[in-house]
Amino acid sequence: MAVGGKVGGPVLSIMDFITRDHVVRRGQRLPADHPAVKSCPTYFVPAPATTEAEAAAIHAGLVELSSAGEVLQQRPTRPIKPLVPDEDAVIAVRAVLHDKTWISFASRLSRKHPAVRRNPDAFVSVTGDVPRHRALVALDHMANLDAKTNATREIFAGQWVDQDDPFVQLHPLLFSKPDPELA
Predict the structure, then answer these.
(1) Strand, coil or helix: 176
(2) Which residues touch 8 (CB under 8 Å, ≥6 apart)?
(3) Could you tell me if residue 79 is inside a domain?
(4) Contact assessment for residue 70 and residue 24, using Cβ atoms and an 8 Å cutoff
(5) H helices present in the chain, as ranges
(6) Whether residue 46 sits in one domain with residue 133
(7) Which residues of the chain have pLDDT under 70?
(8) Taking CA atoms, which of 12, 122, 164, 173 is between 20 and 30 Å from 40?
(9) Cβ(71)–Cβ(49) below 8 Å
(10) Is residue 80 part of a domain?
(11) Is 119 exposed, middle or buried (0-12, 13-18, 19+ CB in 10 A)?
């Protein structure tokens, strides 16, 4: 199959897309004879010299490719802040003003952050009392409401719950395992 005028060899996806049987991420490297490449050849460029780091940059949207595989634009990057370990993290349950800057709902901060110390009622612990081996992470905000639409229980996106929690039983697709890199 010819992609960008070349036959065979590895190819690189230039966008996220879904076929009937495959999910392909931007920057993903596939063989030219892969079914996703055959079904959507215009979504790929030749990638014989692309390293894994370059593919990751493409996936992250830091590099824009032409249909021939040349780099059109390299976006500037910001330094990535180190992530707060789960056991030291809290989640904002409401917006909080801190030093003339708003901390938005669902923001993840260190429990040592000054805004957390000043407004402890505006934050919940990520882990609670759930041990990592039994934990699942909520992917969205959920609430159990009474007849007057008052929340009787809330779980916030990013918060841990036990794998036997009733919310997990009701909505299993809204939970995932904790990220091992944040241990």
Answers:
(1) strand
(2) 1, 32, 33
(3) no
(4) no
(5) 35-39, 52-59, 114-118, 166-170
(6) no
(7) 1-8, 48-82, 183
(8) 173
(9) no
(10) no
(11) middle
